[in-house]
Amino acid sequence: MQFQGFGNSGCSGCGCNGASFQPGSPAAAQSAAPSPLLKIRAGIEAGNHAEVLAAVREADQQGVALAPNVRDMITQWLSVNAPKKPEQPPPPEPAPAPPPGPEAPEPNAPTSAEKLRNALLRFFELAPKASDAAAGLGIIEGKEGNRYLPLPVLGRAVGITGEDFEVAMKAWTVVNETPAGIFMLTEDARAVGLVEWAGWEEFSSSLDVIVNGTRDPAFEPRSIQGHVARAARGAVRSGPLRQPDVLRRLQELSSENLPEDAAPALRSAIQRRARLALACLVDAIASQGLGPQAGLDSMGLVGQLPRTLFGIIFDNIDDRDRGACAFLGEILQSWDRRRCFSKKWLQDAAGKFSMPKGPNSERDERRGWYALTSENLHRKPAEEEQAASAQGQAFLSTDDTHRAQAGEKKAEAPKKDSKRKETSTRARSRSPRSQKRSPRKSPKRSPRKSLKRSPKRSPKKSPRRSPPREKEHKERDKESKDGKEIKERDGKESKEIADKAATQSPPDPAGAGEAGSQDDAKKKRKILQHDDDDDETVAQRLEESRRRRAALMAKYKEGKE
Fold first, then answer.
1. C-beta neighbour count of 247 within 10 angstroms
2. How many Å separate Cα 36 from the centre of its chain?
3. Separation of alpha carbons 213 and 318, rounded Å
4. What is the pLDDT of residues 185-198, one digit of tens each?
5. Rounded CA gap, 219 and 359, in Å?
6. The pTM is what?
7. Domains annotated on the chain, with CATH
8. What digits encode the pLDDT tens for the residues 65-94?
């Protein structure tokens, strides 16, 4: 590149005006060392960027003044002919990783546990219940909404290689080392599920129904009663990992997330419904989380409810809405009785509105929003219970009730009663009092007649009877004799007692008839009392009669000997 001012005739910038020096002169000797300007010219002609740049720096150091136009031309040349950056050689390609051996080092347990959890969530979300995808993956549907995925399928999904049993064993090891409350295994330990899944699915689906219900113009509080109970149970069952998600979803019921196209009246109604529905959900979650069946993690969820949701429920309440104020006041009193939250939170909430006083028919009859409290959540209103009981009584007639009562008595009575009744009837038939009452069955006979008739039943005159039957008849004859003797003695004793009573109390001719009627009445009462005796007294009397019979038999044998 040639510039003006640099030619064979000389340099215009250095002031030499193209003067040439003779080689033998002293000026030529002085110029033997090239000046910066010559170096700049030589570098430009050679196209050496570094030499030109070094010559410019040297001229600046020596104080050689360059004309402005010359300096601009040199700067332009330097910018145009600047050397390009040398391309760096590409780095050497990394050596290929060796294939993993059979015992490759596994990642740490928390990372693998998180991978397993995310994979299970992905599987369960993309394969709903009773779908072809769930059947193809082999997902097992358990009780109460629990779902399980086979361990080999889960292990291969997170990158574990090997045979099925090796993959299952590695996945099982990670699950076993994970703290409790995240995974759950089947009884045979071949499939794994998530503790949070059943509760979270139940909570989220129920909450969606509640949100949509509160924004329905024809909303009734009882229409979401079951969904409130299921949402509370699901929130508690979802576990500690889902507590932030549960609180975030509960905030969706706030009055801020309202449809923009709703009418003003509907917007105010939705705000009121959202406030009261959220109070019912907090009440139900507190009841479930502090109940006997809840775990320790659920207390953490209950403890976060006041800080997160009390402002949404109790702020900016209109005191003119007496129904809402009364309901929220009852809720606060219920929480205070059950000690669900600290008194500081309850007092701050109670100071934000005024609770009306007086009778409350909705509370007493469990109607409206009061049907959604934790105390009435699983109960029907009083009117429906009374109607159901009245219908049940109307379906039963008098005959039906009598039959039902008889059937209940038969079901309650044990089989031993039949045996006791048989023993009681035998004892009454053998007792002297029953024989006095039934003269037809056992007419009075003298001992002589009984003795005369006894030889007729002897085995000598009845050769057809077998020896064991003869023994039985002998025993029966002896028992009948003993019974007759007992009757005679009892009769004598009763006569003596009656004579003594007659001697002690002289008869009154005026009241003789009345006394006789009273005695008859007393006898009838005694008979009725004996008839109404229970099985224990009958058994005692039967035992006493057996003892007497044994004593008489012993005396009878002694007399014969």
1. 16
2. 93
3. 23
4. 998 989 999 888 88
5. 25
6. 0.49
7. 6-80 (no CATH), 109-189 (no CATH), 197-383 (1.25.40), 449-455+467-487+547-561 (no CATH)
8. 888 888 888 888 888 877 766 666 666 666
